[in-house]
Amino acid sequence: MASTLPTCHKGQRTVGPRQGLPRIPPRLARMAELSRDDVAHLAGLARIDLSDAELDKMVGELGVILESVATVQQSPIEGVEPMSHPMPLVNVTRPDVVRPSLGAEAALAGAPEADQQRFSVPRILDED
Amino acid sequence: MTVVDTEATISYDDVLASFDPVMGLEVHVELGTNTKMFCGCATEFGAEPNTQVCPVCLGLPGALPVVNETAVESAIRIGLALNCEIAEWCRFARKNYFYPDMPKNFQTSQYDEPIAFNGFLDVELDDGTTYRVEIERAHMEEDTGKSLHVGGSTGRIHGATHSLVDYNRAGIPLIEIVTKPMLGAGERAPEVARAYVATLRDLLKALDVSDVKMEQGSMRCDVNLSLMPKGSTTLGTRTETKNVNSLRSVERAVRYEMCRHGAVLQAGGSILQETRHWHEDTGATTSGRPKSDADDYRYFPEPDLVPVAPSRETVESLRATLPEPPAQRRKRLQSDWGFSDLEMRDVLNAGLVDLIGETVDAGATPAGARKWWSGEIARRANAEGATDVASYAAERSITPAHVVELEGLVKAGRLNDSMARQAWEGVLDGEGTPTAVADARGLELVQDDGALEAAVDKVIEANADVAQKVRDGKVQAAGALIGQVMKEMKGQADAGKAREIILAKLTS
Ligand SMILES: [Zn+2]
User: Fold this and answer.
1) pLDDT for B453-464, tens place per residue?
2) What residue numbers bound the domain in which A57 lies?
3) Which of A120, B444, B489, B507 keeps 20 to 30 A from B355, CA to CA?
4) How many folded domains does chain B comprise?
């Protein structure tokens, strides 16, 4: 199929209001106190096993970091669109043409363990 | 505190007596592009493990993803076919989670800015009525790798010591199509769910954006279900049954979850918001993991990709490429071909619409095309255990041209019906074209009227009583004589002509 999407138009406007959809309210609009449960939950999501002592320590350390970062919330952002990309570009695409892959040997070269031409990883508990 | 059995079920009628079902369906479709969503790796199904991977889809440091132009076009065409609005500007987002099926530790998806939103799909039910499914959104994302759990006996994760991962599938373009809550289907909820997935599959096939093979996983369905007490307008807690991968299973999974929710609620319990696993063999679901909050995925805009902002001209030029909607096409073809509802349904169920269309285009009559494709050819395919007549025919190089040729031989008076069947037998055995088979097997109606007349005379003499009945005006008795004549001619005569001669001799 012939290309119908413009590719890489420099200087094209990048700001555009999102239409039709309800805006999902930005999270952490107000920086809340970080609780020990929050840290434990985040550690769980990140699959990091923290001891009780480490948890206590992290609550304090993360709290300080959050507090420092929170100063950006004092910026006057009235009427400023959130930015997700520093370059004013849209529609950077590539044609649907196959390019060489790495090859299994090279792909697996960095794997700590491989078996049957696959990456071998520890089993994941409680999920399927 | 009473303990409620969350795995019990009540009868379907009991559920309907007290509750109204609410469904939401999420369908994932793998696009049939040559390459992945963000890299140039091939997407061949069944390739050797980890041969279609590169730094981008393996998430190696420093790799830069670039969007597949054809995938975006397909996404927009799907959105348009679902009567959606197409975003003027939208972004990709990172959905963060740690699981070995995604080597990047996030899936590149779309979050609050889908490429298509606010659409609908009209679904025709068996009784001819239509249910309108409202579409919430269709967004672009990428597929995950495939894990093989080893060390246990069952190939499932329980008892496994480790998992082996193949990333060939990771990064293949996916479109996720999400419905709004489907209300008011009542007792027909399972049928509506199935009909929706079937209609969507037909539509995607017509768009030629995916091979939509549920059995190979290129189309997958998650079923959300909740119950509302009758008369209530507050949605109940839903469960999400994952990977329901056949039309029949979609129907069964809805019904099963309705009966299970009904049991829990009727016993005074409450539904736990969780994912459920579907078991094809038992027709039941089992508890999975508690549903994660969207917050837990910590979505944020993908900084490595720039926004997709299709111009309105682009959208309109893609709209111009949309095929005729399958339901409309079916109605048009049925009327063009003069098929009854039953004939059309049989042809549809056998997947023969396209073949018959091509055969008619090649010059056959619709009746002839239907007769041979759904007759001799389908019968043979079924007898040999083939599930799909079209691919059975393709494997044997049987084409619409063969059907046209055979019909021509019958029309020209060279073959009668039973000879035509013998000719098919030869063609399906790989003996060549209908003409070649007829030549090789000596299939040819006797054109010599003298021989036919002699046979008629012989039969009339031998069956004087029957002949007398015909003379007395019982024309239908001639059938027995025709049969005798055909036998006398060893089948190589035109039965119509034999009838003509018999009637001429006995009734004039
Ligand atoms: Zn790749």
Assistant:
1) 888 889 998 988
2) 48-73
3) B444
4) 3
